[in-house]
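Board notes (copied after class):
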Amino acid sequence: MTVEKEKLAATNNSPELAKAKADAEKVGESKLAEQPQQPTKPNPSFWQQTRENLQIIVIALALAFFIRSFVAEPRYIPSDSMLPTLEVGDRLVVEKISYLFRAPANGEVIVFSPPPQLQIQGYAPDQAFIKRIIGTAGQTVAVQGEKVYLNNTPLEEDYIAEAPEYQMAPVRVPGDQLFVMGDNRNNSNDSHIWGFLPKQNLVGHACFRFWPLSRIGRV
């Protein structure tokens, strides 16, 4: 056993083994030196952080402006002219996209800016009205015997507050205009009083009620 240990010790202390170990250490050191060191990222300064935050705020405001101007916007119901469909305080989403690709349709609830005949009465140009489309270009609308007639056919209207208590002779809706009425027929400043609505005054289609939560859903 002593001889074998002496041989092993001699082998471990041989010049060849020492040289091999030295070469291995050199190779390891060279590989370590070849590895690129990660640069330390400096902490952003106060002004850099402020500038980045301002950029985020500006982008968010620009997106909000774009969406409100061209896509959709929230609206608040201030009057009872659309009872019982819409109550005072209801909040709606008014979308502005669909009418770019199609014409407004009968029965849709729309938001619009007041036409000239209402502005003469003192309404501001940017004041919003909300009514239901009853007649479109070329159609005839009349109110007789507590019924609204479209092209001489009485409308079945389960959405109104009560039957209209007034009469209106038949009128034909001109091109590019609409005939609109409030669902609260006897308490609504609408087309039976001031006439036709130019399509260019449309703001959008009131499509969804998001408040109150108890009545959330499509309009």
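Comment from the instructor: The chain is about 30% helix and 25% strand. Residues 1-12 have pLDDT under 50 and may be disordered.
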